[in-house]
Specification:
Number of strands of chain B: 9
Radius of gyration of chain A: 13 Å
Radius of gyration of chain B: 16 Å
GO biological process, one term (chain B): chemotaxis
CATH architecture of chain A: 3-Layer(aba) Sandwich
Number of domains of chain A: 1
Number of helices of chain B: 3
CATH architecture of chain B: 2-Layer Sandwich
EC number (chain B): 3.5.1.44
Oligomer: heterodimer
Largest interface: A-B, 28 and 28 residues
Number of domains of chain B: 1
Shape of chain B: globular
Helix content of chain B: 10-25%
Order of helices and strands of chain A: EHEHEHEHEH
Shape of chain A: globular
CATH superfamily of chain A: Response regulator
Largest sheet of chain A: 5 strands, parallel
Strand order of the largest sheet of chain A: 2-1-3-4-5
CATH class of chain A: Alpha Beta
Strand content of chain A: 15-25%
InterPro entries (chain B): CheD-like_sf, Chemorcpt_Glu_NH3ase_CheD, Cytotoxic_necrot_fac-like_cat
Distance between the termini of chain B: 48 Å
Family (chain B): Belongs to the CheD family.
Function (chain B): Probably deamidates glutamine residues to glutamate on methyl-accepting chemotaxis receptors (MCPs), playing an important role in chemotaxis.
CATH class of chain B: Alpha Beta
């Protein structure tokens, strides 16, 4: 299993404060290569050019929401196998089911503690350290 | 005039005339967001700014914090039709009512201001600090706010509530 330091991560959330909080948490887990974007539209070309391994994306975003983003990733030949973890609001039960159908690797309900994020990542990648 | 009272941990968003959102604050913060063009507004009420870096909290405890409360308010306001670039915020509360609590009200107000600056949301009226409780009444349709000190009126007790997502779906 890759150590956290070898995994390239893209964080996508329209709120800068949330992106900053997730970045801090990922750095605490040992991730070295973390980037972020405020919209899925900006993130899509960046994850392709940067060969990102893990996308952590909010669902509730303007322009392209998390489901449309996930669908675009899964339909892209190059990106299709990228690990995708979606962040949802507490009332997004239907969203989680749709995300599962589209092939999301895991999801996390906001608000979440950093330990919960680590656990979700480790369920996909295995132990990070 | 219809009044929607909110308490700690709640928010309300309204886009109709003749409605007031009200709350009673001590060291808590209420942020009023308003889109003057769309005539949509909302208010939240949160207990604490943000957890310390070493605090171990579960999901239900995190719901008391401003980071979550602000996201809920912004999302709800936009869902109602507001445009993010039009949003203007007014800040209230953050009093240091009980001596010896380490300036929790001041820290809360600082968090709210920092959050709004980080998110690029314009800040309008600010009435924070002091050592007295405030009653805040917000008219979301026209964006008018009245904040007045109400000494000796303690904030209402917060009812016990279950974490909102205790019915989390098990898919993975």
């Amino acid at each position: 299993m890759p150590a956290a330091s070898q995994i390239k991560v893209m964080v996508v959330d329209d709120q800068a404060s949330m992106r900053a909080m997730i970045r801090r948490a990922l750095q605490d887990f040992g991730f070295k290569d973390v980037r972020d974007k405020p919209t899925a539209t900006e993130a899509l070309p960046a994850i392709k050019s940067d060969r990102v391994h893990l996308v952590i994306s909010d669902y509730n975003m303007p322009e392209m929401d998390g489901l449309a983003f996930l669908e675009a990733v899964r339909k892209d030949e190059v990106l299709a196998k990228t690990v995708f973890i979606m962040l949802t609001g507490s009332s997004d039960r239907e969203v989680v089911q749709k995300a599962a159908a589209l092939g999301v690797n895991n999801y996390l309900v906001k608000p979440f503690a950093p330990a919960a994020l680590k656990e979700k990542i480790e369920r996909v990648f295995g132990a990070l350290t | 005039m219809r009044t929607i009272p909110i308490i700690q941990g709640e928010h309300a968003v309204v886009n109709e005339e003749g409605v007031v959102i009200s709350t009673l604050l001590g060291s808590c913060i209420a942020v009023c967001l308003h889109d003057a063009e769309k005539r949509i507004g909302g208010m939240n009420h949160f207990l604490l700014g943000e957890p310390g870096p070493d605090q171990k909290l579960n999901a239900s405890e995190l719901q008391r914090y401003g980071l979550h409360a602000m996201e809920l308010l912004i999302n709800a306001t936009m869902k109602a039709g507001a445009q993010r670039q039009n949003l203007r915020a007014h800040l209230y509360g953050g009093a240091n009512i009980i001596a010896g609590l380490g300036g929790i009200g001041t820290a809360n107000a600082a968090f709210a201001k920092r959050f709004l600056e980080t998110e690029g949301i314009a800040i309008g009226h600010v009435d924070t600090g002091g050592n007295r409780a405030r009653k805040v009444e917000f008219r979301p349709y026209d964006g008018k706010v009245r904040s007045r000190c109400v000494a000796d009126v303690p904030p209402p007790p917060v009812p016990e509530r279950k974490p909102e997502h205790c019915g989390e779906i098990e898919l993975f």
